[in-house]
Amino acid sequence: MTNEPFVLAFGDNVVDCYSDEKVMYPGGNCVNLAAFARRAGARSAYAGAVADDAAGRAIRDALAREGVDVSRLRFLPGATAYCVIELQDGDRVFAGANLGVSIIAPETADLEFARQVDALHTGRSSHIDAWIPLIAGLTRVSYDFATIRDRAHIAPLAKHCFLAAFSGGDLGRDDALALAEFTRDAGAHWVLVTLGDRGALLLGACGLSVVPAAIVAPVDTLGAGDSFIARTLVGLLRAEAPEEALAAAAQTAALTCLAKGGFGHESPMDVDISTAMTIDEIYRTTKPAPSPVDA
Predict the structure, then answer these.
(1) Beta strands in the chain, from DSSP E residues, in sequence order
(2) Across residues 89-105, what is the average pLDDT?
(3) What is the residue range of the signal peptide feature (predicted)?
(4) Domain range for residue 10?
(5) Nearest to 131 by CA among 30, 229, 285, 11
(6) DSSP states of 164-192 as a string?
(7) What is the CATH number of the domain that holds 147?
(8) pTM strictly above 0.90
(9) Within its chain, how far is the Cα of 82 from the centroid?
(10) Could you report the per-residue pLDDT of 206-237, keeping only the tens digit for each?
């Protein structure tokens, strides 16, 4: 592996709308990861779908300015996905969202692109779980499970993962380690559990690595977890020592907390947020992208 691995992020996107300030920022797990992987020195590409509206153009333009390949970005009829953000003492709170046109299945050209990269990143918010076995036959898979704890959900996906990532700020260390051990036993090559201001742990064939958080006074924690995953993934693809990759990821996440938005690129809010649904409604009602059989 070279020092410039090639990472493709496929799936979710949003503009994060700070309604009280009337500004928006490009975001979503996959968009953030593509940007932060590029900042970490990797080649990076993003594949997903937006509408030809102010929000969609803001996502495209921000990624392009970051040096991310957007040749696989689709423009579809409808509205770009958005999320309404409120800040409480520097912590981001998701107040509502609408997924717009963002839930899509990979096209043949996306799969051909995946053959060219060192890893494809996606996650629960992209709703392409049925595609993971096929993608794993083309390249390494990085998957953000976020707050999923259901072992029956984790196991079938974990066996296809080069990196399985979890957000574990709600977990004690023993529970976080148990989650990592289960996921590793299910077949994941590496398992990352971020623990908020308590740092993170990484479990792999060489054992357990732990890193404390780099403590800062946060301005906005939005995107911190995504930047941690991105820097860890890039480090592992470079064959960095796990401790080295984790330490760099902790510093990256801390820096992310010192600026507004996932990775910056503020623009005036140009989104009708009256169609927002609660996050619970989103998870309860969103249908996955068409499966390989149906696509």
Answers:
(1) 6-10, 14-18, 23-27, 43-50, 69-75, 82-88, 91-98, 119-123, 140-146, 163-167, 190-194, 200-204, 207-211, 267-268
(2) 89
(3) none
(4) 6-285
(5) 11
(6) EEEE-TTS-HHHHHHHHHHHHHTT-SEEE
(7) 3.40.1190.20
(8) yes
(9) 15
(10) 999 999 999 999 999 999 999 999 999 999 99
